[in-house]
Amino acid sequence: MVWKLLKQHISAAQLAGFFFANLCGMVIVLLSVQFYGDVLPVFTQGDSFMKKDYLVVSKKVSTLGSVVGKSSTFSEGDIADMEEQPFTKAVGTFTPARFKVYGGLGVQGMQLSTAMFFESVPNRFVDVKLNDWTFKEGQEEIPIIIPRNYLNLYNFGFAQSRNLPQLSEGVMGMMSLDIRISGRGQVKAMKGRIVGFSNRLNTILVPEDFMLWANRTYGDNETNRPSRLIVEVDNPTDERIAQYFKDNGYETEGDKLDSGKTAWFLKVIVSIVLSVGLLISILSFYILMLSIYLLLQKNTVKLENLLLIGYSPSRVARPYQAMSIGLNLLVFVLSMAAVVAIRSVYLDVIGKIFPDLPPSSLLSSCVAGGILFLLVSCLNVWAIRRKVNSIWIRK
Amino acid sequence: MNTIELQQTLPEVFAGRDSIVSDIWHKQVALQRGKTYLIEAASGTGKSSLCSFIYGYRRDYQGIICFDGENIRNYSVFQWVAVRKRSISMLFQELRLFGELTAWENVQLKNTLTGYADKKQIRQWFEALGISDKWNERIDKMSFGQQQRVAFIRALCQPFDFIFLDEPISHLDDGNSRIMSEILIEETKKQGAGIVVTSIGKHLPLNYDRIISL
């Protein structure tokens, strides 16, 4: 009955205006959040087992330096200086093997064998979630991470020219390598298992524990200075990094700087789109508030009479509050539906280009939409109540 | 609620006037539950203002108004809602009915809030006051006299300690006034309530305990 009375003067056109404006804003906001979540892995994937923002740093090897025997290794002073830089979070050194390594692989009866080398970095630079990345003394199997290039070299160069089968990463992971390590007059045969492929590390990586044990047991005694450093930074796009490296004649390996930049641009673009969406949402919210204020204004006499025959302000405000919450909820649900629909289209495309992208969930956009819905609804409820209270107080 | 006290009350608009001859303004007056009062006044002496002060929708007065010794100026919204639902019923001079609703819907709007009268009782009142054929008629299609009767019935649809009727029969004939009096007496007796009627000429025929001139 109260609703029958209060629904008069409701302007369908105004509410429709709010509805579509808010729908647009909400879809843009949610879509940008969702898109960011879906697409970001494209730029950050690859070395999921490594911490994200790290750089591999080496000194330039110049012709002159080679001739005069200038060292391309990092002194302790270099490392300390690097650690003090404002963009640095942590610095680790590559520990090279001080023993000889031979690796062998049997493919269709054909034995490939080669001299190899191992390096290790401190475990904290390798994602700890990787359970395989452990080594205990006495263990016969060594987990290994090799550059993805090696696999490509084999698959697209070697295997094709020799009519050998191409190997997927999964198959490689199941094969075991024959590893022979020797030094100080001892020889030990072990098995190697490839647990990961790296786009960015141009080395054959083994766990630090193994390296320490093997160097102790088989290594010669001289300690090598590290020739490469692994540096974790706050933001790989920081221009101070580039400047510092240039000043000291350092080089970085891999494409981390580039993909970091791309990810950063993605962030910027998404932020811009997000702000536009938010702006539209705020404006549409404004339309709704104006519309409801106008409605309350037109119904002031009725509201006043309802209050005078004993209706409480909260009871009188409730139909309008319910109406705005209902509208907001409808907008939320419809915009989620729109996001799901649009997402399925672009996921198709992305899925074709990057087939092994990890699946992402709708959670982020759901949460963002939920927060937006709650925020807008609370503001509506509060504003309507305030307006009704002002009608009460006016008397 | 047993008493409504007015202590030195005066509408702020009268503050500039030199001499005020009144039984209420600038006096000490107490209205008791169970008694019947007639407030007689010429137009413009503040009848409706008095009603609005006591009913809490205007506060532009000087002095103090108390319900059972409690100053109503400090009442919260919550307290006022309770007073309007359970303690004081008001038949407004301007009626304050909803023109776009029917007679029954107008009464129902109040009755669903209080749950006081049953539909049968309400129908009897409609019949007694001769507007049973207007049951489903929209209020804005009815004459003012008919509307007055609907508003009166609405005012009965709640428990009350006092019922205020602001010029209830200004547009009623004597027959209907008599019937209204009978219903009013019956209802107030049932509730032990006090009656306050204002009038500028025609009185609701009742046995008044006190006639106050404003």
TrEMBL record, chain A:
Keywords: Membrane, Transmembrane, Transmembrane helix. The chain crosses the membrane at residues 12-36, 264-296, 322-342, 362-384. It comes from the Bacteria. The keyword Transmembrane helix applies. The keyword Transmembrane helix applies. This is ABC transporter permease. It comes from Phocaeicola faecium.
From TrEMBL, chain B:
SUPFAM superfamilies: P-loop containing nucleoside triphosphate hydrolases. Residues 1-214 form the ABC transporter domain. This is ATP-binding cassette domain-containing protein. The keyword Phosphoprotein does not apply. The keyword Cytoplasm does not apply. It comes from Phocaeicola faecium. GO terms for molecular function: ATP binding. Belongs to the ABC transporter superfamily. Transmembrane segments: none annotated. PANTHER family: IMPORT ATP-BINDING PROTEIN (PTHR24220), LIPOPROTEIN-RELEASING SYSTEM ATP-BINDING PROTEIN LOLD (PTHR24220:SF689). PROSITE patterns: ABC_TRANSPORTER_1 (PS00211), ABC_TRANSPORTER_2 (PS50893). Pfam families: ABC_tran (PF00005). InterPro entries: ABC_transporter-like_ATP-bd, ABC_transporter-like_CS, ABC_transpr_LolD-like, P-loop_NTPase.
